[in-house]
Structure formats: structure tokens, C-alpha cells
Amino acid sequence: MRLLVDTGAFSAALSRKRRPELEPLVAVLPGNQLHLAAQTVAELRYGALLAGWAASRVARLEDAIQAATVIPVTDALFTAVARLRFDCRAVGHPLADRVHRDDLWIAAASIHVQAPLVTADRVFRGAPGLRFR
Asked: Global pTM?
């Protein structure tokens, strides 16, 4: 099954430190086609820089990113982002707010590639057209 994995779930899968609240999400990842939004890749790399990860840990992160499919930023994705923000604004969903713009792109990528989103982030709940795993 094709899944779009958000930043929190993907990083939890890579972490040696287990987070019980994310374990159910991590458990669904093996054996599935994992997809990442471009924003997730940027957030993962930023987090590694911010935390001052050692080269070996960064290499593990890069291997995991390479094993996933990064959704290309295309004109069709731009349209999906615009449509989702418009739809969210119409129903008063928080993804329409600027503060959630990276999450909006992640949600739009999930809708664009028709893959359920794997996330524990509540901001995504109730977004028009978004499916979850």
C-alpha cells in the first residue's frame, strides 16, 4: 500500500528512542510504499542540523529518505495545495492558516498522490479530502 508519511511519524520510525504514542503509526510502515512530501524532507534535514547529528546518524536519515519516494513539486501539486487551502478556508479548517503552511503542503501531497496520510498530528483531522492510515 502506498502511504504518505508525515515528519513526526517518519522520524519516530528512525529513532532508537521509542515513543509509545507513535508506535501504532511506526508499526504500519514496514512492507508499504512510503512517500514523503518535500516539506517533510526539509523538516527532517533541518531537525538533524539543529540537533547537531553525527555524520553516521545523518547518513541513516539520508538512506531512509532515499528508500522513500519524494513527491515531486509539480504544477499539479501547486493546484492541489491551492485547492486544499481554499477548501479548508471554506470550512474553517486550520490548515488554511499561514502558521500551518508546511502541514498544508504535506496534506495536499497526500491527496495529490491519493495515498493515506500517516500522522499523529491533530491539525490534519477533518481536512477536506484527506484520508488516513
From this structure: 0.94
Sheet holding 2-5, edge to edge: 69-70, 33-36, 2-5, 117-118
Radius of gyration of the chain (CA): 15
Cell of 96: 488554511
Phi then psi for residue 56, to 5 deg, are -65, -40
* Distance from C-alpha of 49 to C-alpha of 70, rounded to nearest angstrom: 20
91-94 long-range contacts (CB < 8 A, ≥24 apart) are 91/126, 91/128, 93/126, 93/127, 93/128, 94/123
Total number of residues shown for the chain: 133
Distance, in Å, from the CA atom of 55 to the CA atom of 40, rounded to the nearest integer, reads 20
Please check the confidence at residue 16 and state whether its pLDDT lies above 90.
Answer: no
The pLDDT tens digits of the residues spanning 26-42 come to 999 999 999 999 999 99
Backbone angles phi, psi at 32, to 5 degrees: -110, 160
Give dist(CA 32, CA 83) in Å, integer. Answer: 28
pLDDT band at 18 (very low <50, low <70, confident <90, very high): confident
DSSP 8-state class, residue 69: E
